[in-house]
Design brief:
The protein is of the alpha/beta class. It contains 17 helices and 17 strands. The chain has a nine-stranded parallel beta sheet, with helices on one face. Strands 11-10-12-13 form a four-stranded parallel beta sheet, sandwiched between helices. The protein has a two-stranded antiparallel ribbon with strand order 14-17. Strand 1 (9-13), helix 1 and strand 2 (38-41) form a beta-alpha-beta unit. The radius of gyration is 25 Å and the shape is globular. It starts with 8 loop residues before the first strand and ends with a strand. The mean pLDDT is 97. It binds alpha-D-galactopyranose and zinc ion.
């Protein structure tokens, strides 16, 4: 397909605002040597570009944009709304989020605004609009980057009000809500919309991570996945053909990225594997990010050397960054971008790797490796851009299922959705079989094999869709803990795996949980035996 870019974007987050002007000039020279052609700017500059409630100041940002435009960079322009300016929080404390224990946060840190605060919305929208107006004519701005790593949940009164509005829109009547959440259980029946409160540690999620009603907890995540179109719309209202993205975080549990991708022009994501993350897990996450839109994606961030926020921030070994970058391209990326281009001298990211280290020169291993990669990528021209990966195997990934499975109470706390998906992914990966990560509403007909591990939640229409796939000759692989509940987390009655029972030809009568020190053995008719653990089904072949 046609790529959204004219060249592979190679660069990353760049914060010249943290440095004196001499450094900018030096940077431009170094970056040229490294074949860097792109910079992501203005990610955390709200306080600088709006020093007070009634005042914008774009002097410095103009200079940065001019400098990069003169060097013909592909600029990724962020909207700066992920960290609030101190004046805003002082005057409007409600712009800060309230956590799951009901504590309203003070000024500080980042990613902790309340997306439903009307004040926040007003200022974020105004800023995005102002930026779009100011830079709409700049041909070097290739991408608009909304906010940064969305994800924080808020449980304040504003969010509660909005949640009720969302629920009214979804269910229409309170009877329907009561029915969906099965509130007859523990006598949680609602007689008025105002009785519904946000599910957090003061209410339904009082037992650390688990919930008394997975229906309400899952709906709160769905509600949050529907927020946040505001800034995108503001940019588009001024620049209708802007290429808009926001940087996602792979298998992040908090937001339904399949829903989000529909609202984005291109998917971008930040890849921060730990020293012990299997490469197959990284590959799977790239495939998931490609699968969100079934299109090439942007690698918005990776570190050229090390992170600062993991338990053990190991260096990438010589050649590792290069290899991981090629892995990224091979899985469908059209950009390789770093966090960040120059390492900061203060703040909690001073130990986060960058293309230019604290020594301040280009005479480092990391710089040289970056430059080598830059040269190689440049030599590819447009050959890899927009290329597609063809896969005969699809693996279903579904955020509703992720939430319901992990918020549910029982049968084991050790069952983790992403690990199970990876388990199946790894099998194909080790055989070099290309895989697409697909949504439940995807086009199944493209595949010979579809794996749907722990397909706990079988929503309306899925039974028919999966059966059709199999009738047409497809092979469906599913597992234990599948077909158990409907979209509201109420059990499909009549024996597990519910709607999949007929097709699977088994009836699971009971599910046994094994503690970590316990295991069991499965014997097959060919005499082979395998160890099993976690959950064991007492099952009848039908
Ligand atoms: C995230 C953020 C960046 C930076 C990096 C550090 O991806 O988007 O601003 O904090 O982490 O790893
Ligand atoms: Zn809130």
């Amino acid at each position: 397909m046609q790529s959204k870019f004219k060249r592979i974007l190679f660069g990353g987050d760049y914060n010249p605002n943290q440095w004196p002007k001499e450094v900018w000039e030096q940077d431009m020279a170094y970056f040229k040597d490294a074949h860097i052609n792109s910079a992501t700017i203005n990610v955390f500059s709200w306080a600088k570009i709006q020093p007070s409630e009634n005042e914008y100041n774009f002097t410095e940002l103009d200079e940065i944009v001019d400098m990069l435009s003169n060097e013909n960079y592909d600029i990724v322009m962020a909207t700066s709304t992920a960290a609030l300016p101190a004046w805003m929080v002082k005057k409007y404390p409600e712009t800060m989020s309230t956590d799951s224990e009901g504590r309203q946060h003070k000024f500080g840190a980042r990613h902790n605004f309340c997306p439903n605060s009307l004040v926040y919305q007003k200022y974020a929208k105004a800023l995005a609009t102002e930026l779009a107006k100011r830079y709409s004519g700049n041909k070097n701005i290739s991408v608009w980057h909304i906010n940064n790593e969305y994800g924080g949940y808020c449980y304040c009164d504003n969010c509660q009000k909005q949640f009720r509005v969302w629920l009214k829109d979804k269910y229409k009547t309170l009877d329907a809500v009561n029915d969906a959440w099965n509130t007859e259980f523990w006598g949680h029946t609602f007689y008025d919309w105002d009785e519904i409160v946000v599910p957090n540690e003061l209410s339904e999620e009082a037992w650390g991570g688990m919930t008394s009603f997975a229906g309400i907890s899952t709906d709160y995540r769905r509600f949050y996945s529907d927020s946040y179109k505001l800034e995108r719309d503001a940019v588009k209202s001024i620049i209708p053909d802007a290429l808009v993205t926001t940087n996602l975080m792979g298998t992040f549990k908090g937001l339904d990225y399949f829903k989000w991708a529909k609202e984005m022009d291109i998917v971008s994501w930040d890849n921060y594997p730990a020293y012990d993350t299997p490469w197959s897990m990284v590959a799977m996450t790239h495939d998931l990010m490609r699968g969100l839109k079934d299109e090439p994606f942007m690698l918005m961030e990776q570190t050229p050397s090390q992170q600062n926020w993991q338990h053990y921030n190991s260096l990438k070994r010589p050649g590792q960054m290069r290899a991981q970058s090629y892995q990224t391209i091979a899985h469908g990326a059209d950009t390789i971008q770093f966090f960040q281009l120059r390492r900061s001298k203060g703040g909690c990211e001073k130990f986060h790797g960058a293309v230019i280290a604290h020594v301040g020169t280009n005479d480092t291993r990391v710089f040289k490796e970056t430059a080598q990669l830059g040269r190689e990528l440049e030599s590819f021209g447009t050959r890899t851009l927009g290329t597609r990966n063809k896969s005969d195997v699809g693996i279903i990934f579904d955020w509703d299922n992720y939430w319901a499975l992990e918020y549910t109470s029982g049968p084991t706390q050790d069952l983790k959705y992403v690990d199970q998906i990876h388990h199946y992914y790894e099998y194909f990966y080790n055989k070099n079989i290309s895989i697409d990560m697909i949504p439940v509403d995807g086009d199944f007909s493209k595949y010979k094999v579809i794996a749907a591990p722990v397909l706990y939640m079988v929503k309306e229409g899925m039974k028919e869709k999966l059966e059709q796939f199999v009738k047409n000759g497809g092979t469906l692989i599913t597992t234990f803990m599948s077909g158990i509940v409907d979209q509201s987390d109420n059990v499909h009655l009549g024996g597990y795996p519910g709607p999949l029972r007929e097709m699977a030809g088994v009836w699971v009568e009971e599910i046994d949980a094994l503690a970590p020190e316990q295991s069991n053995t499965v014997s097959f008719s060919d005499g082979k035996e395998y160890k099993c653990n976690l959950l064991c089904d007492l099952m009848h072949p039908e």
